[in-house]
Amino acid sequence: MASLSSSPAPISPAYPSVGRLSDSPCFPQYTASLNCLEVNQQDKSKCQLLFDDYKECKKKEVVKQYLSYFPSISLSANISPITRTVLKVDVIITPDFVWKDRFHGASERWWFSVEKWSREYHMQLFVIEHSF
């Protein structure tokens, strides 16, 4: 007679947000404030410094998130001569930010210019469009 054995189902957190909290860079401050509350029998006045550390960490996390939305690009160019007075310029432009329709809309515009000292040789508009 074969015995049926079932593997235990993975335990999911009681609240969905708990999984994300453990991945947060502020998790050490969060656990330290909870441990302080346990040690001091829920006396919040003794743990205020740890609460403030956690709040500051969360503020930094939000600022870092919003900075990732700031439009920036990575640019790589390969320049080769065609004649004595003409250059061929191959440019690879890669968006280096998190796209949010709320901030960027459907597209972001950039000006590309080729300059030497204060003389401008070429200027071109290019548009990065959000692909859905």
From TrEMBL:
Origin species: Platanthera guangdongensis
Pfam family, one: Sec63
Domain SEC63: 55-119
Domain of life: Eukaryota
PROSITE patterns in alphabetical order: CHCH
UniProt name for this protein: SEC63 domain-containing protein
Matching InterPro entries: C2_domain_sf, Cys_alpha_HP_mot_SF, Ig_E-set, Sec63-dom
